[in-house]
Structures are given as C-alpha cells and as structure tokens.
Amino acid sequence: MRQDYYDKIAPRGQLIVVSGPSGVGKRTVLRKYMAEHPRACHSVSATTRDPRPNEVDGVDYFFLSFEEFDRQIRTNQMLEYAYYNHHCYGTPKKGVEDARAAGRNVILEIEVNGAMQVKKLCPDATLVFIMPPSWKELERRLRERNTETEEAIQERLEIAKEEIAMADQYDYIIVNDTVEKAISRFAQIVHGHRYSINCMTEFLKTYIEGEIHAQERLAY
C-alpha cells in the first residue's frame, strides 16, 4: 500500500506535539521522520532569539522582534506561546489550521508550557515527550554542540529537570537512545500503532531513581 495512505490518516490531519529537553535530539528525529513521510509537516515556530549558524528564517523559525511577537499575541495569531531561557517562543495559528484542514499531519516541536496550552485548546492533539537515555548523555550532547557558555549549559540542565518532571502529562514517552529507534517509535505513534509506556508514572519513577543512583555511584 502506498506510503501517502499512511501519512494521510483522516480528512482532517492530526496534531502531534513533541517536547523534550534541549539537547535530547528532537529536531534530528523529526527531520529524519519527515524526510521519510513527506505528507507530514513541521509547524514553524516563532521566536525572539537570534538565529544559530545555518538556521534559516521561515524554515527553522520565524525570527521576530519582541514588538512583533507581542503584536501577534495581542491579535490572537498564536496557538500557544511561552517565555523560555530569556526568549519568547510561539506557534502561529494559521499555518497549523491550514495544514490540518488539508489533511496533513502537523508536528509541533515546542517546550512543555506551550504543550500544556495546546493540550487544553486542542483535546485531539497527541503529546509525545522525548527523553534522553540518561542524564549524563544529555549533558554530553549539550556540550558537544559547542554553541553556549558553561553558564548557559547549566541553565539548560536546570530547565531540563523541570521538563522531565512534566513528562507524565504526555500521551507517550520515547527514549532517544538511538535516532533510528526513536524514529521507528515515533512513526508507530503517528500511524496508530499503540507504542506506549504502559504506566508513565512508574516509568518516570524508575528513570529518575536510576539517575539518582548513578549520580550517587559517581560521587564515591
């Protein structure tokens, strides 16, 4: 059966919200998934931060001034918005609605507060949280980017702790141990195969306790 049959599941497209700590590899997973499933589309977020090297306006983000971002909030043009790490981030509403109306599956890559806003406004949305295989690995990935100061990295790690604590508010958790496995798990979720953690609370308890024990072993 043709791939586009699976990509277009219903007359109205799905809304899939993806979150996870900075450095967990969300964008890599989503880009490779969408390269294989062209009928799915990534909703381009808006932000007030400066572009990173190789980022393109309108492709990676809409890079807006604080004034323009505030104007779009006041005129109800944002589906969700949040203040994160000293900058504003948000999802322009029109692009999401137009794509869903055309039957395309829309993927939002947003932080936790924004995801909770979407959960309230769009009860049919599917929320997916991408988890690092370990805390040590998350820290390694952040440092490997070589784009931020030590202070900024520590701030992102503090934010990551708060984000991971909210993962039980999501419908699914994917551990990004390898990109290939994460893409496969994500595809199963989007296309209706019930890949999930049976008990998220127990999963998170085990995950967090494992990290605490690992840190205690390193301390000796």
List the helices and strands and how they pair.
Blueprint: H1 3-7, E1 15-19, H2 26-36, E2 40-42, E3 45-47, E4 61-63, H3 66-74, E5 78-84, E6 87-92, H4 93-101, E7 105-109, H5 112-121, E8 126-131, H6 135-144, H7 150-165, E9 172-175, H8 179-190, H9 200-219
Parallel strand pairs: 1-7, 1-8, 2-7, 3-4, 8-9
Antiparallel strand pairs: 3-6, 5-6
Helix pairs in contact: 2-8
What does this structure look like?
The chain is an alpha/beta fold. It is built from nine helices and nine strands. The strands form two sheets. The chain has a five-stranded parallel beta sheet with strand order 2-7-1-8-9, with helices on both faces. It has a four-stranded mixed beta sheet with strand order 4-3-6-5. Helix 2 (26-36) packs across helix 8. The chain is globular, with a radius of gyration of 18 Å.
Radius of gyration over all CA atoms, rounded: 18 Å
State the total count of DSSP E strands: 9
Q: Count helical runs.
A: 9
* Helix-strand string: HEHEEEHEEHEHEHHEHH
Estimated helix fraction: 40-55%
Output mean pLDDT: 85
Which class of secondary structure composition applies to the elements?
alpha/beta
Q: Poorly predicted ranges (pLDDT <50, ≥5 residues)?
A: 1-9, 193-199
Strand content: 15-25%
Biggest sheet: strand arrangement: 2-7-1-8-9
Envelope shape: globular
Largest sheet: 5 strands, parallel
Q: How far apart, in Å, are the first and last alpha carbons?
A: 56 Å
